[in-house]
């Protein structure tokens, strides 16, 4: 049985709306972002998800919750606390069938933008120069001051995917991942053949728009 992976970008955040570098700053969705999550929820309403993964940032969590709210199977989301398993167990197997587990981890966080976090992108271009800011944003191995490069982001994201998410796909499960834009960039194969696509291999990968 072939597993399916649905990879969804979070909705617009309050800082996306203001054109501000966000990174790991934990700001919420904007009203438009909630509407975007509702639309994706409608697109995916007939998909029977088995498990959900998000970053530990609230904009990804909010997006996932809204998407699940619109799902026709009406499974109840419950957060898994792998480091605090005792006391969080569900012992009734019939009740457990009504739940959908949500795993959150900083390994799936957006790229950390360091000194650019909280800075308007137009202001950053004026201060550092348009070419330099573009290099920080689009280069694979260049990083902003005290921030992460895409290479560094991949080095924490791909191992998590291989260790935690891929086993569900191999067992035929349908997985929803709600992540941040730069994590989604890692789905594209790199020049060395690595990237999320190479991990997924034969599994169906869908990016709702």
**β-strand amount:** 5-15%
CATH architecture: 3-Layer(aba) Sandwich
Major sheet size, sense and barrel closure:
6 strands, parallel
* Overall structural domain count: 1
Mean of pLDDT: 86
Share of residues in helices: 25-40%
The geometry reads as: globular
Q: What integer value in Å does the Rg equal?
A: 18 Å
Can you tell me the CATH superfamily? Phosphoglycerate mutase-like
CATH topology: Rossmann fold
Could you give the order of strands across the largest sheet? Answer: 3-4-2-5-1-6
Number of helices: 9
Distance between the termini: 26 Å
Name the helix and strand elements from N-terminus to C-terminus, one letter apiece: EHHEHEHEHHHEHHE
Uncertain spans: 188-205
Brief summary:
The protein is of the alpha/beta class and 209 residues long. The chain is built from nine helices and six strands; from the N terminus they run E-H-H-E-H-E-H-E-H-H-H-E-H-H-E.
Tell me what you see in this structure.
This protein has helices at 14-17, 31-43, 58-69, 93-96, 121-128, 130-138, 150-170, 181-185, 196-200, and strands spanning 4-9, 51-54, 76-79, 99-104, 174-179, 204-206. It starts with a strand and ends with a strand. The radius of gyration is 18 Å and the shape is globular. The longest helix is centred in the C-terminal third of the chain and has 21 residues, at 150-170. Residues 188-205 have low confidence and may be disordered. 39% of the residues lie in helices and 14% in strands. The chain has 9 helices and 6 strands; from the N terminus they run E-H-H-E-H-E-H-E-H-H-H-E-H-H-E. Helix 2 (31-43) packs across helix 3 (58-69) and helix 5 packs across helix 6 (130-138). The protein has one domain: Rossmann fold (3-Layer(aba) Sandwich). A 6-stranded parallel beta sheet has the order 3-4-2-5-1-6, with helices on both faces. It has 209 residues and is α/β, with parallel strands linked by helices. Helix 4 links the parallel strand 3 (76-79) and strand 4.
């Amino acid at each position: 049985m072939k597993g399916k992976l649905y990879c969804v970008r979070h909705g617009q955040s309050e800082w996306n709306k203001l054109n501000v570098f966000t990174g790991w700053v934990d700001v919420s969705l904007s009203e438009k972002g909630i509407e975007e999550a509702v639309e994706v929820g409608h697109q995916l309403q007939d998909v029977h998800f088995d498990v959900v993964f998000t970053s530990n940032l609230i904009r990804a969590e909010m997006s996932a919750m809204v998407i699940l709210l619109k799902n026709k199977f009406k499974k109840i989301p419950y957060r898994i606390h792998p480091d605090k398993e005792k006391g969080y167990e569900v012992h009734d197997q019939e009740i457990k069938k009504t739940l959908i587990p949500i795993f959150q981890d900083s390994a799936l966080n957006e790229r950390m933008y360091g000194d650019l976090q909280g800075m308007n992108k137009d202001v950053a271009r004026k201060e550092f120069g348009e070419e330099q800011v573009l290099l920080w944003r689009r280069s694979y191995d260049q990083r902003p001051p005290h921030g992460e490069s895409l290479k560094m982001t991949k080095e924490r994201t791909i191992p998590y995917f291989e260790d935690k998410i891929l086993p569900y796909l191999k067992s035929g499960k349908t997985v929803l991942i709600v992540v941040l834009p730069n994590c989604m960039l890692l789905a594209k194969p790199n020049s060395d053949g690595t990237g999320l696509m190479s991990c997924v291999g034969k599994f169906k990968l869908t990016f709702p728009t």
